Amino acid sequence: MKFLKFENEIEASKYVSQEIIKEIKENNKAILGLATGSTPIKTYEFLSKDFSLNKTDWSKVSSFNLDEYLGIPEYDEQSYRTFMNKTLFNNINIKLENTHFPNKENNYDDLISKAGGIDFQLLGIGVNGHIGFNEPGSLENSLTRVVDLTEETIEVNAKKFFDGDISLVPHQAISMGLKSIMRAKKIILMALGKSKTETIKKLIKCKNFDINFPASILVSHPNVTIVYDKECLNNEI
Ligand code: GLP
Known about the structure:
The protein is α/β, with parallel strands linked by helices. It has helices spanning 9-26, 41-54, 80-87, 108-115, 151-161, 178-182, 197-205, and strands at residues 2-6, 31-34, 62-65, 67-69, 99-100, 120-123, 145-148, 172-175, 186-191, 224-229.
């Protein structure tokens, strides 16, 4: 794992957006694994700006999002589909039919392998170390499946996206598994701000997979970069 520190959220997001643009320029049919949550919002803003200024061509790019809530309609205001359409897909020339989300019917891992596998996977991280919605207890060889969200995740997500109303947050989601994520050729995990300090300190110390800290799976991936900002951690690693 490589660790890269940036001055702030803006600089970190600028870097990640440039890495994504580089990926697309090298391979106009790039297959991207994308994440939701508050962390990638600025990155998606930079990618949207880049499209309006430089017209980077997304017309042959495909995307596979990590996860989606269950129990709310696909185009609900709070669905990850709606989030992605608003923050990125509607602002670039990606074809919506090339953008994918897991659901109970679509054999997501097969769909990803048939497309050729993920070239570049973007990840955020939950305070409890979850990646996608792989909560503590997720198995090393887990594939896309229905998952129960922890109380902690429900509370955190309620504050960030549901006006603090816990009763509105779905209790289940469908998420790529740890094994599905590990199949990506290249991974960038972003950790921004104070709320992730302890999580990243813990990740730095990981040597092996710890079932209680899902992001630890990444220690055995050959191409992972952890992008963090000074507010998250001011130490050099
Ligand atoms: C959410 C998502 C994850 C995300 C994480 C962190 O629940 N399922 O994909 O990376 O939690 O969220 P945030 O970026 O808002 O801190």
